[in-house]
Amino acid sequence: MFDLTPGGIIQALNLRNPIYRPTAAYGHFGRAPERRRVGDRYVELFTWEHADRVEELQVAAERASRTSGKAKV
């Protein structure tokens, strides 16, 4: 479901962009994702706030729930 290796997390959250200044002000959780010009390019900020995998997680949770219910025979 999720690649939880350091490389997988870096890739999934696009963490190779130097976005320290925007994330240092006013906290870095609970903020809406946004694109901002940093130097000569645009980068996406607060990628960890995306909720684009909710349905995938719900399906996996339902599948796990059904599987664990069968194991309790």
Alpha-carbon distance between the termini? 27 Å
Structural class call reads alpha+beta
* Lateral strand order in the biggest sheet: 1-2
Estimated helix fraction: 40-55%
Q: How many helical elements?
A: 3
What's the overall geometry? Answer: elongated
Low-confidence stretches: none
Radius of gyration: 17 Å
Please name the defining characteristics of this protein.
73 residues, alpha+beta, two-stranded antiparallel ribbon, 41% helix, elongated
Description:
Helices cover about 40% and strands about 15% of the residues. It is an alpha+beta fold. It has a two-stranded antiparallel ribbon with strand order 1-2.
Task: Write a compact overview of the structure shown.
This protein is an alpha+beta fold.
List the helices and strands and how they pair.
Elements: H1 6-12, H2 20-24, E1 34-38, E2 41-45, H3 54-71
Antiparallel strand pairs: 1-2
